[in-house]
Design goal:
Length: 320
């Protein structure tokens, strides 16, 4: 089954179908740019380079933002907010849906040929001014997803009827379904955290990780493995496929007192996909989808994955 067929089956709203199809076209274009020899030459030659048409090459995150904008303008969306734009772009129409995106997630991996991706969220305006529409809680999202530019180009998508996984069929330039209903295993023995920040962690995170590290001899009574790709999309991809827990908690670094990841275009879209796949996503206190949004670029703690493990994290401040 191809993406278009999946959408006709599971998504009643024509405008959302249109927006997702256009986002997938944008992602195919981004994926081709990333794979191009031009790009390989550009990232290995830090001086300014020109592409085949003689244009100056732009950093890939800026280029990805422009590609998304180009395709969204051709779709029934009324505005777009992204990591690369300070405010939102108003398309000056009365369409119902607005779109959030992290055009190219995994900044530290962009130049080193490690998986990166595009995260998006589709939200209704609900008769609100655009300023207010962009500050709705994640629970109002109608659809969310992310593309991964890795060994394969994949798409994790929800339109509120479960989470599905697609893979790009390079011959046909279309996404084909790989798994119609992803269900994240409830329990796991794999955690993902950047452990180099351990001295900045709060007691909850320190206790939880300490207990995992004690393995079979500790309170958890089982051994754990650790993974940290450093691209949210790649770490999330692994968790959707085989379970696990991802943790990027707030810590005592001044810049990250509220966490590092962004609520509207990173945590919320991932949290909707997680909910639809039977997992759990929290900031340690509240469900991510229930967090009040005060600004488009607001940061948040983000802990998500196998439900039993996320529950264990939530309880961990009490367990020493
Ligand atoms: P980005 O949107 O600028 O790429 O930042 C988000 C990325 C995530 O993909 C990843 O989980 C995290 O930052 C890695 O952070 P760190 O380098 O602190 O481990
Ligand atoms: Mg990001």
């Amino acid at each position: 089954m191809y993406l278009a067929e999946y959408l006709s089956k599971f998504c009643e709203e024509k405008d959302i179908r249109f927006i997702i199809k256009n986002l997938s076209q944008a992602a195919i274009k981004i994926s081709k740019v990333i794979r191009s020899v031009d790009n390989a030459v550009n990232v290995n030659n830090k001086s300014e380079t020109k592409n085949i048409d003689g244009d100056i090459q732009k950093p890939l995150d800026i280029l990805s933002d422009e590609i998304l904008l180009e395709f969204l303008k051709k779709s029934p969306a009324s505005a777009y907010a992204s990591e690369e734009q300070e405010g939102f772009v108003d398309f000056k129409n009365n369409n119902e849906y607005i779109v959030f995106a992290d055009p190219l997630d995994g900044s530290s991996n962009i130049d080193v040929n490690v998986s990166i991706g595009t995260i998006f969220s589709v939200m209704p305006r609900n008769d609100l001014s655009l300023e207010k529409a962009f500050l709705q809680k994640g629970m109002n999202q109608k659809s969310s997803g992310f593309f991964v530019y890795g060994p394969q180009t994949t798409l994790f998508l929800t339109v509120g009827k479960g989470t599905a996984l697609f893979c790009l069929d390079e011959e046909r330039n279309e996404f084909i379904i790989v798994n119609e209903q992803i269900k994240i295993p409830i329990s796991t023995n794999e955690f993902a955290i950047n452990a180099s920040y351990s001295r900045f962690w709060d007691i909850k995170t320190s206790n939880y990780i300490e207990n995992c590290q004690q393995g079979i001899d500790g309170p958890r009574g089982k051994d754990f493995g650790m993974r940290w790709v450093g691209s949210l999309v790649a770490d999330a991809s692994r968790i959707f496929n085989r379970g696990g827990i991802f943790l990027y908690p707030a810590d005592s670094r001044v810049k990250y007192k509220e966490g590092r990841l962004r609520l509207t275009y990173e945590a919320n879209p991932i949290a909707m996909l997680i909910r639809e796949a039977n997992g759990k996503a929290t900031n340690g206190l509240d469900d991510i989808l229930n967090i009040e949004v005060k600004s488009i670029h607001q940061r948040s703690s983000l802990i998500f994955g196998s439900s039993e493990e996320v529950e264990e994290y939530i309880k961990s401040s009490k367990k020493v």
